[in-house]
Structure formats: structure tokens, C-alpha cells
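Supplementary Methods S3. Input chains for the assembly prediction are listed below.
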Amino acid sequence: MNTEPLIIMLVVQLSVTGVMLFCFYKVMKSREGKN
Amino acid sequence: MDHKKEVWGSRLGLILAMAGNSVGLGNFLRFPVQAVQNGGGTFIIPYLVCFLLMGIPLLWIEWSMGRFGGRRGHHSTPFILGSMHSGSLWKYVGVFGIFTNIAVAAYYCYIESWTLSYTFHSIRGTFTGLSQTEVAGYFNDYVSMGTNFFGIPNEAIFFFIICILINTYILSRGLAGIERVAKIGMPLLILFGGFLAIRGLSLGTTAASEEFPLANAWDGLNYLWTPQYESLLLPGVWLAAAGQIFFTLSVGMGTIHCYAAYMDSKDDIALNATSAGFTNEFVEVVLGSLIVVPIAAGYFGLDWVKENIGFGMAFQSMPFLFSQWGPVLAALAGIFWFGLLFFAGITSSLAMGTPWMGFMRDEYGWGQNKGALSFGFLTLCLGFPCVIFYQHGFFDQYDYWAGTVSLVIFALAETILFAWVFGIDKGWKEINDGADIKIPVIFKWVIKYITPLLLIFVFVGALFTPEGNNWVGAFNQIFSGQGWPLDHSSLVMQLSNSELKQNLSGAINADEIKDITNRIFFANLARIILLFLFIGIAILVYIAYRKRTNKT
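Predicted C-alpha cells for the full assembly:
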């Protein structure tokens, strides 16, 4: 795979995954999440 | 109306149910098609911009409208919208939020039934040893009622009914049933998708054959992710990106309002909605982009993919590609692929049942069983013509008018209601009430100005789509006094069946003329049925309104 699309793909996919995981982390940390 | 108020069992259950509502077949089938048809890497930038400026704001709007209505005892859009402004017309705008779900469920359950059937056939090894043409032919036979299942004729009808029965049963279990399916289905979907995505990433050139010696899975990924910045100036690409965001998030349907209406009045919206939205994006951008295009490019080459990509590829090509992986892996991949599509489908179709059930429960005192059975019956009656007359384009009419046009109209109307009629200050307060994250205040202005403008852009774009989706050419033409060249896919031209009529005028043999005449007849019939459905729901809303006013 070429370098430019590979970098863009990784940046976009990791960002989306990162935000999703962060959101779930915040949800689980909250009171209702623990319940 | 003495039913005990239903609530979600857990916050995670609510988020997964909302994400399940959004994650649908489109994440795996529509997204790659749109991306490939709109220049590959060009598509992703407008797509992400539209997600941030239209998708996420619409999620916040719909979640907060739903919670607002839920506090007042409303669990469907007619009276949720009606409770936000005293104007009597808003509740009839809310009819879209029930109409769209019933009409979309009617054809969506049919696609869902294909995935169920193909999962069984993958286990049975039906596709083993078949050529690409034979696998494609099998699908055509299936939708033409030419296949049978263990001797049961008309397999398509059989699986359609099974699918509706499954949906009806789960819906009759109420929110608890939906939540349980989401908690099982979503992780399984991600697991299945992850397996196939790893395969797509690792395929490389190993699947090249004598027929396709240059086939390379990475060509597919290169095409999807190589940016072509000059194409950012093409309105058609932006329109396609905005459209995809719409469909992928299931906004403009009324399901989000309905789910959110069952939240507690002080529950968070900002974080929950963002979590559900990004889960959908994860499934689409990460998993959706790594399966169909790279795997197909790995076997057939990029040129073949560009030429043949479409919704049907999932059923006409993927089973053949899986069969190249050896009997065990082929069966496993088939189960994973069609299984993930089934889970993606059922979590969405279940959501489509809840607005009708919520409305009938609030206004007419119908219990869960009665609500679920009536929804199943309506879906069966409306979906049956889609199954029988699929080849005549009946299905496409439902998809266009209920699954496309209605969504845009409703989303535009609800955004105007929320930001301009209800008022952005009250709306912003509603979004932030009980929030576990702080939303940047800039989004207040995005919701007020940018989101409605983008929606108007999408609506006008659909209304007057220029020929070949060539906006630059169309503007040049109008400025040189030659008029606006409308495409057959534009709403205006669709309404007049212009493409079919043009084909009819050019048809010469009797079979072709008969086929096109049938298509025109069934297109008009489908629209009349949809119109009656809308009017029927509007009458139910009117009666419910009269009952309410008589009580007070």
C-alpha cells in the first residue's frame, strides 16, 4: 500500500477508534455506567 | 394508558441499542459504494466534515427532542414535535417519524431476510464449487422466487416471513428484548467484522489469478484512501457525503427520538449520543472500508470493482470470493459476513418498530404484544409486494420515497423546529442538561446555521440533481442560457417517471415494452400505497389529538 493513503487511513481510523473508546471510557467511569 | 413506564435497563444498553439502530447494512454496503463512486479518497474528507457539522448535531437534536417529549409522556414523533410548539401542524410533520419506519421496515426486513437465508446457505455449503456467474445467478433466482429451502418453494417469501416473526417476537418483549439483542449483536458484529477486515488487510496480491493477474487488495485501499484535493470543489461529492452521513446515522427517521423518550429525565445526552455516533463511524470507516472493496479488489482487480460495485455485490460476489478460501474458512467467512449483516439489519429493524408501538401505546393504550403484532402485520402487508414485485422495481420506490426523500424532509423540518421555533437557547440548554461532557459552544451556532444549511443543500441537491451529477457543467449551462439539465435521478424527474418513459419511447420489442409498462404501473402503485400509509397515520394522529383535547 502506498505511504500517503496508508498514513491517512491510519490517522482517520485511529482517530475514530480513539474517540469511540474515550467516549466508552467516560461512560463506564460515570455513575450510571458503573451501575 | 395505565401501562407502567418502560425505561432502559442500563446506560450501556441504551448506547448499544442506539448504535445498533444506526449501524445497518449501509455501513458495509452503501459506504464503500459511495466512496468508490465518488472518487475514493476524495470522499472521506467531505464525509468527515459532514459527520461533524451535520451528523453529530442532528444526533444531539434528536436525542434531546426525544428526552424532552419523554418527560411529557410522548414516545413518538407526532406528539414529541407537537409538545415543542403550540402550532398544530408540527404533529403532522411528526407523522414522518412513524411513516418512514413502517415503510422502510417493509423492504428492509426483506434485505434482512436475504442475509438470514445466505447465512444458512453458507453453513450448508450451497456456494461451494459455483462460479462467479453461478453465484450471481443464484441471487437472481432467489429474488425471482426460483429457489427453494429444503423443498419449501418460494424461499424468499419463507425467509421474509421468518424474519418478520423474529422481529415481532423481540419487539413484543419490549425495550428489554431490544437491549438484549443489541448487547449480543453489536459485539458479535464487531467481532465478525474484525475477522473479515483482517482478511481484507492481509490479502494483498495472494488472490491474483490467471484471469485477473493484476488483482491486488491494496489497490482497493489505495483507491479508497488516496486524497484528490481538487475534487473537494465538486458539489456532487459533498452531496453524496452528506447523504451517506444521513443514512448511516439513521437520522431523520424518528427512531432516535423514540429510544431517547424512554430515558430518565436527567440522563446525559451529549456523551451518550456522541458514543453511539462514533460507534457507528467505527463500524463504517474502520470495518466497512476494509471488507468489500479490498477483498473484491484482491480477487478481481480495482477496475472490476469500479465497474461492478453496488449493493448486490454483497450477495452476488462475496459468497464466490469466500468459496476460494477452502471449505471450512469459506463457511466461516460466509457465516461471519452474512451474520454481521443480519445483526446490523435486525438492530435497525427493531428500532423501526418502536415509534409505531410507542404511539399506539401512548394514544390508544395498546400493550406490547398488540403493538408488536400490529407492526409485524403492517410490515408483512406492505413488504409483501416488495418481495413479489421486486423485479418490477417496487422495492426501489419504497427505498427512494420512504428511505431517502422522507428522511431529508423530516430532518430539515425538525432542525428548523429545534433551532428556530423552539429556540436555540432552549434547545442548547436541553442538550446540555445532565451532560457528562462539555460540548464546545461553537456547536450552538453550527446547529442554528450550518446544519440547516447543509440539510437545505442536500434537499435542493436531491430535488434538482443535474445530469450526470455534474454541478459545474449544469451551472455553466444555466449561465449560458441553456437551462438546468435535470438528471433522471432528481426528485423532480423521479416523480414523472421520466427515465422509464424515455426507455419506453425507445423500446422496440414487445417484451421490453411490457416490462417497462409494468415498471411504471408498479412505481405508481407503490407511491399510492405509501401515500395511503401516510394519510392513515395522519388520521390516527388527528383522532388521538381530538381525544386529548376532549379530555382537557
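Chain A has a mean pLDDT of 87. The CA atoms of residues 3 and 9 of chain A lie 10 Å apart.
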